[in-house]
Amino acid sequence: MAYNGGPMTEAMYYVLLALMRPNHGYQLMHSIAEVSNGRVNMGPGTLYGVLSRMQKDGLISLTEEDKRRKTYEITSEGETALRLEHNRLKAVIEDSRILEDGDENG
């Protein structure tokens, strides 16, 4: 099943951002907190569920596996999906400019 290109969950978005550099699960949790400026703290259950789904969707791939850890990286399809979602979010913010304009008139 491939990713359908619709809006991403926040968890998916931050996992892809954090995987711009290959990473393993435990370190990935810290990287997600870092790229989100501490706003997103993902536990192991949520993280591994998202990783499994994203791997099935072809957005990430398993690059290395040993007894203790699995290392993941973003795929080209994942990077394309991340950039599309980034552009969508920028458009959402742009569409919300009326809120700022309203504050100025206010």
From TrEMBL:
Limits of the Transcription regulator PadR N-terminal domain: 20-83
SUPFAM superfamilies (UniProt xref): Winged helix' DNA-binding domain
InterPro entries attached to this UniProt entry: Metal_resp_DNA-bind_regulator (IPR052509), Tscrpt_reg_PadR_N (IPR005149), WH-like_DNA-bd_sf (IPR036388), WH_DNA-bd_sf (IPR036390)
The protein's name: Helix-turn-helix transcriptional regulator
Organism of origin: Bacillus mesophilum
